[in-house]
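Raw record, unedited: Ribosomal protein L7/L12 C-terminal domain-containing protein
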Amino acid sequence: MEELVVESVRYSAPCVDCGAQLECWGVHGLIGGSLRWDVESVCSACGQATADCGQDLPARLRDRLLADHGPATLRLPNPPVERVTVMRVLRAELSLGLTEAKAVAGQVLAGAYSGTLPEVEALARKLREAGVEAVAARP
């Protein structure tokens, strides 16, 4: 089993019950080969507590993670790489059309593709499975 890759962020948000500030914790991880997220919150004023989770990372949580940790970049340390292999993995993993996959492959090959660390590591693992040496790294 491969290593877990997890990022978390702590933030405040207004309580839907009383309007006080909630204390929230958001987590995004690559666990057992799947991307997952969860958010838990507790209001110290009224005691309201929530927990939510899923696979498709909500944009607000993604933005908070990127602001707190910075983006991770997908690097291919041993070019040249078969562009077709990269595009095949991108199309399968990111549900891209051919034109989109070509554009994203250009970003990957230029070292400009980035995202949360779990997102980028998930893609790096799929590329390695396809025979492409790939690493998720922070600049």
